[in-house]
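Researcher: Please translate sequence to structure tokens.
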Amino acid sequence: MKNNFRLFPLALVVMVVLFFQHNNSFAQTDTTKQNSINLLDELNTNQEQVELLPPKFLITQHIFWGKKGLMRNFKRFELTPDNRARELKLRRTMLVTHQVVGIATLCGMIGQGIVGSQLYKVSTEGTVRENSSIRNTHELLALGVNIGYFTTAGLSLLAPPRMLSERKGVSSIKLHKILAIIHMTSMIAVNVLADQAKDPKIRPWHRAAAFTAFGSYAVAMAVIKF
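Model: Translation complete:
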């Protein structure tokens, strides 16, 4: 047992050395890659522009970040290797913010669901009555959830495209996008049916859309984190 403890510092030193060698090899690779990009940029600008963008990306990203996108009208966002490097940093910032705001929105959805379950109460006579004070709280939470939700969506849809195309096959990112279609459709349905939810016939549909939006949104957040 003591010998094992004596070997621990040596193992730690070996791990640190391997770590720095690993980082140095990546640094050398990145330097070589950057030199190649600069050389290609001098030899053939048009070819480099094609390589700086993936073959496929979202239509919203095409509008802003495509070769003739709106952002390309600004010198800072002209399609060059240096500008693309800055765009990828901006992309990372936007996607990290996307996750943070998304988690806050998910918490808001939980609160809205709890308050919503108390919105209508059945009296002793069997009639359904709406609690006006709870409704005000429910509407305020709904406003916050909508702002958070569509801000989260915008941060993802409008972020600069990645450098390479997605890998073929099923991945957590593709599953996240499929779920995004489900929860966005459900969120739109929730908002459309919100004003009609007083009608007992519409209320179950509103509730079902809300549960679908929450469930698919929660799973979409989970597949990215885990």
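Researcher: Any highlights?
Model: The chain has a mean pLDDT of 79.
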